[in-house]
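Take a record:
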Amino acid sequence: MSLMPRALKKHAAAIFLSALFAAGAARADAAADFYKGKTVNVVVGHEAGTGFDIYARVLIRHMGRYIPGAPAMIVQNMTGASGVVAGNWLYSVAPRDGTVIATFAQTVPLEPLFGNQQARYDAAKFVWIGNMESGLAICGVTRASGVETFADLQQRETLIGATAPTGPLAKAALAVKNVLGAKLKVIPGYKGSADVKLAMTRGEVAGICGLPLSTVKSFWAQELEAGEFRPIIQLSGDKSPELANVPHYTDFIKTAEDRQLFGLLFGVQALGRVYAAPPETPAERVSALRKAFMDTMQDKEFLADAEKTAIDISPMEGEPVGRMWSEYASSPPAVVARAKEVTTP
């Protein structure tokens, strides 16, 4: 069998690369033709003033420059059931043409896994665009509460504000209560973390659980610096050097079963600011949005804006985000059942 001459091989490779480049350029041109003059809606499943809202508003100030055709971008808040309403809308109602992406709490994609009948979507079919922050959550209390350490929470009843009973704030508090032994009384019904903050100021509740550290450092910065608000335990991610004296949930792991359970309860916070498109969004537009998202994460003006706004940026591409959700969704049934049990009011 004769071998292809070296010159012919180089010529064939050049043709292949040229065709590949041309195909990529054609996709970019098609995306630019589609997006030119349009508006991309970023739906935030939480109220204005929350961390999710703040992150989205910083994102839209810059991402449009990187989407082919430079469309306008706007934020729309769609509240309800701690992000589940937005998840339902994205799955069943939102246009599947690349003009909509959404962000919601990291617990939302797992709600069907936990048997939440309100969650009428299959998160595996969402198209993941990317993640702005690999987050770390905390429980925190007011100075007026008199609670100074996590051990204090294990000794005295403390009122903790939350959103819906199935929302991430309530679930985090219930997990801390039922797994880590804190004597928490969860008070649900607040619209969002901003509403809980007002309740803490009024003395209605003493603390909050499941609050991202990035939100603390931005929206709660004044109270944190004044000592009026103090983190009391770290619930996810790696241990933060900024909270060296605050215990981390991994300090309480005793068994392999604990590690699986705590990972499902708290480790998911690593996907702290995810963005998704509806199922069946055209592939070339998904590619355009994913590239624009990651290009934005590297943009100097965006990073300066993020620093000014006091939000942390530690991005992740869309495909790894999808793999992480798949991993959590395939947790052993016994672990899922236990997680559901300890986070049910």
In short: The chain has two domains: 11-134+271-334, 137-268. The longest strand covers residues 39-44. Residues 16-24 have pLDDT under 50 and may be disordered.
